[in-house]
Amino acid sequence: MQQWARFAIIGAMLVTAYLLILAWQKDYGNQAPTVQEKTAVVAHDVSTDLPNAQNTATSSDVPQASTAQAQQSPAATANPTANQNLISVKTDLYHLWISPKGGDVVRVELLQHDQTKDGNQPFVMLESDPKRTYVAQSGLIGPNGPDGSKAGRPTYATEKTEYTLADAKDVTKDGKTSKVVSVPMVYTTAEGVEIVKTYTFKQGDYPVNVSYQVNNRSAQAWQGQMFGQLKRDDSADPGKSSQGIFTLGTFLGGAWGTPDSHYNKLKFANFNEDKLSTDAKGGWVAMVQHYFVSAWIPGHFGNQEYTAKLESRKTQDGMNIIGFTSPMINVPAGKAMSVDATLYSGPKIQSELKDLAVGLNQTVDYGWLWPIAKLLFVGLQFFHNIVGNWGWSIILLTIVVKLILWPLSSKSYRSMAKMRVIAPEMQRMKEEFGEDRMRFSQEMMALYKREQVNPLSGCLPLLIQMPIFLALYWVLMESVELRHAPWMLWIQDLSAMDPWFILPLIMGATMFIQQMLNPQPADPMQAKVFKIMPIMFTVFMLFFPAGLVLYWIVNNSITISQQWFINKSVEKAKAKTDAA
């Protein structure tokens, strides 16, 4: 029975290591990290790729209108005063560029997130240059939509080409006053229909409202549909970071959700074969990468939330497109109507994503242990609000977890301490009964019963810790809040490996001390395997996030103190019993 307990402990430890390595290799590629370079923003003219509304959309940037026999309006003329320069918008969170051609967002720099830990360049989320294409597009298609006309995408006119927080106005809503920057863009068709496309930025918020106001000053009714989509090539994930011999880069691809099906992933390779095509009210579409996400959330037609068609496709030139299309909008002559949507392009901040759409916060993918991971993250956030440091938050969370598990682990450690005390008696029985294994097993079971010892209890602490350990791994890998988060001294990024390998060596030492407090295997081969385990785990931990290793060190340190105290109390109780 004791041998089976040893093998169970070894197996549990190996399973833990195996699952970590397997998860790492499965979800994180072995490619070199992508270095984002500062390049010129290019506003691609994609008008040559735009089909008529009734043509197939698989090779186009613009989605197909819902009317199969849609009639094109007469060729619209671009406003001669349209500014051909990119429009720059700078807030406290964004530096963003909008192309007057179609009004697409062609570059986004996140000012609160650096490309690298030691760098001073902002992280580039969206960009359009010869090396990489990843843009957020929106427009109006359909019978009279200018984006679906034969003349190509419209060119909007703006009052100026630079907007900052100095242009912000105070807007009060629900008793709260916020600084809001509005970027209106105007396009007038040959028929006299004025289309005002407005980007609205709020200070301190990543979500951006994109609205269309159609002022129909023509003599005929206007019909069209709003679309919003994300277009991306197959380039590598710039959000991944170097981890020594490993390179991190979580799921890179499309995602979508509805109130009935909260979170679904869609690989780029499946954008056509298993393409998305569904109608939903309150849905969303997104492109997901490590730590960051871009998403379109359909909004309102007037004051009513509309049912949008969510779609994905791959163009003939290999671009991956995922987006939505609104229902048909009818604007009578002399009337005005509006339609809008929300664009999010930034870090995966769960609290903000949760408020935007149901399931959007699940783009922070914690894997199959997500219930435990979410609890751990909530605990980390709680302590971070108190101490203001993620490293100390991990230490405090580990202490709380150990206190919660203390009664259960104490029972297990007490049984192990008794195993340690009766080890000499077991050795005596082994020598006495020699090769009579049946008699030895009978006497050993009687001894276990008499001393109230459970040889399998030693597996319990590790089995309990394994899911917590794996869940914390996902928290460190998926939570952007811990990206580049420093602790102290040489640990300046808890989501990356220890650059000096000091924490893994300390972890190995604590694991070795902990083993010395456990009852030693009677079998020489098992004893050798046990001595090798700290070395094996030290090697594994060399390239794992420093925050994960820190958790394991604190956990081992508390376990050593707990186990030492229990061992001493059991030894004293045994001495008293023997004396009596």
TrEMBL record:
Residues 50-62 have a biased composition (Polar residues). It is found in: Cell inner membrane; Cell membrane. GO terms for biological process: protein insertion into membrane; protein transport. Interacts with the Sec translocase complex via SecD. Specifically interacts with transmembrane segments of nascent integral membrane proteins during membrane integration. Keywords: Cell membrane, Chaperone, Membrane, Protein transport, Transmembrane, Transmembrane helix, Transport. The chain crosses the membrane at residues 7-24, 390-409, 453-476, 534-554. GO terms for molecular function: membrane insertase activity. GO terms for cellular component: plasma membrane. Belongs to the OXA1/ALB3/YidC family. Type 1 subfamily. Residues 87-377 form the Membrane insertase YidC N-terminal domain. Residues 50-81 are annotated as: Disordered. It holds the Pfam family YidC_periplas. It is a multi-pass membrane protein. CDD domains: 5TM_YidC_Alb3, EcYidC-like_peri. This is Membrane protein insertase YidC. The keyword Transport applies. The gene is yidC. Residues 63-81 have a biased composition (Low complexity). Residues 390-568 form the Membrane insertase YidC/Oxa/ALB C-terminal domain. Required for the insertion and/or proper folding and/or complex formation of integral membrane proteins into the membrane. Involved in integration of membrane proteins that insert both dependently and independently of the Sec translocase complex, as well as at least some lipoproteins. Aids folding of multispanning membrane proteins. It comes from the Bacteria.
